[in-house]
Structures are given as C-alpha cells and as structure tokens.
Prior knowledge:
This protein is mostly helical. It is built from three helices and no strands.
Amino acid sequence: MFEPVHGSAPDIAGKGIANPIGQIWSGAMMLQHLGVPEAADAIEKAIADILAERRVRTPDIGGTASTKELGSAIASRVSREK
C-alpha cells in the first residue's frame, strides 16, 4: 500500500542513480497513516530542506548525486531534526 508506483527503469538499473525520494516519501505517508505524524513531518521536512539547498540531487532532477548520497543526506537531516 505504501510504495511509489513507477516503471522498472532498466536504462538506469544497477547504476545507483535512481531518485529515492518517492520511496522515502512513501514511508512518511505510512507513518502518517499509522498515527505517527511527528515522524512523517520530520521526513517530509528533511526532503524539502535537502531539495531547497540544491546541493544533493540525483541526475533526474539536475544533479550528480547517487541514490545512496541523496538517501543519506535526507536520513542525516531527519536525524538532526530530532
């Protein structure tokens, strides 16, 4: 129920450049549904903050970061906000 819906993207499979935001945001939606709005809000704020900084972005949104780099940047921001 809480997963991003998209194609398999065979052209980028294994390259580590997929944008993880859809999957991360799906987790936030799940937390909201489960009654943990503070955690969901922290994740959504971290995503918004990282995107606003324009430093860590995957190629599909104009950057050069890897999937892991963007995911780590968001996770780090969530950790700082606690």
